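Changelog note: in this version the structure field was regenerated for every chain. One regenerated record is shown below for reference.
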Amino acid sequence: MHILLLVGIGGFIGAILRYLVSGWVQNGISYFPLGTLSVNVIGSFFLSVILYLTENKGVFSEETRIFLTIGMLGAFTTMSTFSYESFRLLEGKETLYLSINIIATVLLTLFAVLLGKIFVLSIWRS
């Protein structure tokens, strides 16, 4: 039950943060889903940082890792919204935006994971 509460509380916080960050980034942009792309990239970076700190340095406890990764970041990032928005671009025959969205999301989130790893390893070199 304790773990479920951690996931639920983390999810509550992550969902609110996603709403705020995505809305703030998306403000005024009509066609391209930049808000969703942004939360996926930001979330990928922080997921990488948290998991590398946990797995390689033992910084976070199992409960903290679950709270942050499954709870907060699980609700903060979303592939379902990415998929829906991509499909809507396809339906609207916005093939350029569709291509940019898919390629940018995949490449930038992978790059964010790499940056998270580099960030953690550079801090803990000593």
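Spot check on this record: Residues 67 and 75 are 11 Å apart (CA to CA). Residues 95-123 form the longest helix (29 residues).
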